[in-house]
Amino acid sequence: MLDKCHRFQWEPGDLDWSVPPREMERDDEIAICQYFTDMAGIERLASALFVEQMRKTEDPVLKEIFASFVKDELRHAQVAQMLADHYDVHHYKFYELNPALRRFAPAFVKLIRFLSPEIANTYVTSGELILDVALLRSIDDYVNDSMSSAAMHLINRDESRHIAVDFHMIEYYSSDEWIKKVEQQPAQTLSERVRSFRAMAKVIWYAKPFFRGVFFDPMGRVDPSGKRLREAFKRIQLLAEKPQVRRRPFVRFMAKMRELYNDPVVGTVLGRLLVRITGVEPRWLETLFTDEEAAKAATMSFDELAADALGAKYAVV
């Protein structure tokens, strides 16, 4: 993997920016420019999260891999902003980062610093699945232009490496080796717990408008059927169903939120609270997989699950 991280580097200048954009309706141009503006912010957030993962790991090879991922995401942010400028042909408005993203990003990075590496990795993996399986591919299809396709091809190649490593880290943080290591660590002090709780509360407060503004609302336009977003959330759920993953406290907690939401009594009484805690739309708290799919996922290796998730972004139309 480290060899691939070095071999598959590229620069924004490798793309031919002289290609004129296709003709667009006014609403399409505005939407596309805003999506790429927000994508630049999302990619910068992703780079900050990989910085935190790089800091948390003690493995020198992983440190170098995560460092390459930071470089990837900063490059993606630069390219996304260049795409926003490229398609801003008529200058209908001034484009700025979604306010919900501006509020959420620093709070989330601060929270990740307080959390254990396994929880940080769970968040990062979920975000990468939504970004790679659903958002990037759907935006590219909506833009339907050679410039976007050329850029997205290279970005998707990078993101495939990221997801492969994300799943590898999920496997490690579910292992007996990691659990034993955690058990040997000193318990958090009261002040550390209070600080973590405050950081978590702030993220929960900002999460719902963030997800709605930069993921769910755009996906409602670029993928009105919701098929790709459904596939992304289904893979997140299936990953949490693997027995060794499910035994970890945070994954078990999030899975319990979904189970409670789907309970006919508890869901009716506490449904709105559960939606607020998780930050996602109600439909994505529904169980999205069948018993057969769960049984199959439970027997698959993490590499196979990663390959299956990567295949989903091209299989779903």
Tell me what you see in this structure.
By secondary structure, the protein is mainly alpha-helical. The chain has a single domain, classed as Ribonucleotide Reductase, subunit A, CATH 1.10.620. It is built from 14 helices and no strands. Helix 2 runs antiparallel to helix 5, helix 4 runs antiparallel to helix 8 and helix 11 crosses helix 12. The longest helix is centred in the middle third of the chain and has 33 residues. The radius of gyration is 20 Å and the shape is globular. The two termini are 29 Å apart. The mean pLDDT is 90.
Q: Estimate nothing, just give the exact number of structural domains.
A: 1
- Judging from the principal axes of the Cα atoms, what is the shape? globular
Beta percentage is under 5%
Q: Give me the Rg, rounded.
A: 20 Å
Number-wise, the strands total 0
Structural class: mainly alpha
Main sheet, how many strands, which sense, barrel?
none
Describe, in short, the structure shown.
The protein has 317 residues and is mainly α. It is built from 14 helices and no strands.
Helix-strand blueprint:
Layout: H1 2-7, H2 26-56, H3 60-87, H4 99-114, H5 117-143, H6 146-173, H7 176-183, H8 190-222, H9 227-241, H10 243-246, H11 249-262, H12 266-278, H13 291-299, H14 302-315
Helix pairs in contact: 2-3, 2-4, 2-5, 3-6, 4-8, 5-6, 5-8, 5-9, 5-14, 6-14, 8-12, 9-14, 11-12
